[in-house]
Design a protein that fits this description.
Elements: E1 2-4, H1 11-14, H2 34-54, H3 63-76, E2 80-85, E3 88-96, E4 103-109, E5 128-131, E6 134-137, H4 144-160, E7 169-174, H5 195-201, H6 204-208, E8 210-223, E9 226-229, E10 232-235, E11 237-246, E12 250-251, H7 261-278, E13 287-296, E14 302-303, E15 306-315, H8 318-339, E16 342-351, E17 354-356, H9 358-370, E18 374-377, H10 389-394, E19 397-405, H11 427-439
Parallel strand pairs: 1-16, 4-7, 4-8, 8-19, 9-18
Antiparallel strand pairs: 2-3, 3-7, 5-6, 9-19, 10-17, 11-15, 11-16, 12-14, 13-15
GO molecular function, one term: metal ion binding
Protein name: Amidohydrolase
Cofactor: Mn(2+)
Length: about 450
Amino acid sequence: MTHHLPRRRSALLAAPLLFALSGASFAADVPAWLDEAVKAETASMTTLRHDLHAHPELGNQEVRTQKVIADFLKAAGVDEVVVGWKDAPTAVVGVLNPGKGNAVGLRADIDALPIKERTGLPFESKARGTYWGKDVDVSHMCGHDAHMAMLLTAAKILAAHKNEVDRTVVFVFQPAEEGDSRENPFLAKTPKLSGAKALVENGLMEKYGIRTMFGIHVMARVPAGEAWVVKGPALNSADAFEVTITGNQAHGAMPWTGTDATLAAAQTVVSLQQIVSRNANLSEGSGVITVGKLQSGETGNVMSGSAYMQGTIRSNNPGVRSTLLKRIPEVVSGTAAASGVKAETRLIEIYPVTVNDPALAERMVPDLTAFGVKASEVKYNPGASEDFSFYAEKVPSVFVFLGVDAPGAKDAPNNHSDRFVINDDALPAGVRVHLAAVLGDASKSVK
């Protein structure tokens, strides 16, 4: 038997985007106060990031973080501050200039990882938390503390100049990008809505009429303050699977008296590896199927009657992703039948491909440059996955990669490493990215 969790078709593919293009030059009208405003907030932004870094919280448990964000937005003069959002109870949504229309959404994720930090920084996390019922160390080793600090600072600056902002701006502080820390999806029959998917399916975009969406992710191994923009697929989809194989245990010396679950599992692993090379249209994109966990057997002289495996599925193309999700249970079922065992496959669909709207991404680069950011259009996919993809399925979106490496850094520890470090000199560039997304020409051209 195969269990499929619901999967939504990409609105991005179904509804082509029309742009009103005016000439070949897209130079943005940069406000005179930009440089001074960013400079004035840099020191306090750095202090804020260090505080958030020292007090990380896991997905859907971000109680202190939520209060810090909400209090900051209210003090900054953001018109509406919504604390909690249906299936995302620790979210915070701030709205500037409600009712002006042509709304743009800016998103920062707020949750941390179940990782013990080993950076030795003065503000290193010592936090503990509960992850899927287990007591764990907690740290911001993905950089969400920087995401929050940059967006909060941008919100403060925009609120101070809101009369010059000719549109509605929605600041989305989203929990659980790294997943729900309360519930193990492999144990839940139907995982609860969480993270970006919860906000999107709970009507966030429709509520405020959000027409474009922007986000930033800090990245190791990119120079601090440099912004990289990708046209099209920027991050991979992420899905998971588990397979339970049931055979008949027998004496290891008399295998004909049973059915070998271990052998069936081994053949299944090999067969799964042939899906990408023989079924996926690799002219459209790439895909990976990895079995990361395989358990079988009890002792050396007993033929196993059961086996269990877990794996991950990644792709940078929606069509390839669909093929992999379709073929995995078919291949498992066919291999089981050939081996004389029974097999049950469960697919857990997590994040779609993160697709930057190509036209919007192309127009974003000159806006960023005009706003003082060293920006480049690049072909880059670090192989990771992000639930920003759910916003990008709904409206034209751009997810910007922001470098955080110190000058001269070589082979810097990557995001999710216990030694991942952010150079604070990158933070002002992130604020400028948000300001360019709101005040620049690119997203205003979306019709």
